[in-house]
Amino acid sequence: MRKNKVAKNVKEFLLDLIFMTVGSVIYAVGLNGFTAPNNIAPGGVSGLAVVLNYLTRVPIGIWSFFINIPLLLVGLRFLGRRFALRTLKTVVVLSVMIDYAAAPLPAYTGDPLLAALFGGVLMGAGMAVVFLRGSTTGGSDIVSRVLQLRYPYIPLGRILMSIDVVVILISAAVFGRIETALYGMVAVFTASKVIDGILYGMDTGKLIYVM
Length: 211
Description:
Blueprint: H1 2-35, H2 44-56, H3 60-79, H4 81-101, H5 112-131, H6 140-150, H7 156-175, H8 178-200
Helix pairs in contact: 1-4, 1-5, 2-3, 2-7, 3-4, 3-6, 5-8, 6-7, 7-8
């Protein structure tokens, strides 16, 4: 019995590690390869980290990690120890992926609209992969999970998009370009649709009227 329990725990740990690593890599490529090089803040903690990186040149991953610390305490309080520990592991892995694994990859600095679209798709897919294991990438993901406890009928991606709009407006003020906010909204909207499509895409039904 104990061996079975240990084996199950090891399996769960490996699955968590695989999902958080794959999701973090996808997310980091979207952030480092498309949005950040074009001064597009994709909302949430990552968006704030992009803005602070622009102002201070401190790496995005480091800013992301430190901003997440108080939010992890909120997650611990409302979502439980297991959730907080899983999210902490994801935050650490994501921060490393952003600053090291994805940083050497070539950055796209062409059409900002394409950067916003492809960045949004990759970041949304990365977050959704992490969400599938009951964790988050931290930041506004934690806040959205807490809000979803109160409003379970609102899709997770829509909550994230609402929170991210505030960060996008801040980034527009810092970068001094209204286009920054517009492209940021495109990235956030795209990411939210990808998240909802992956998480709720199979949770649908069909109604047939037989006359």
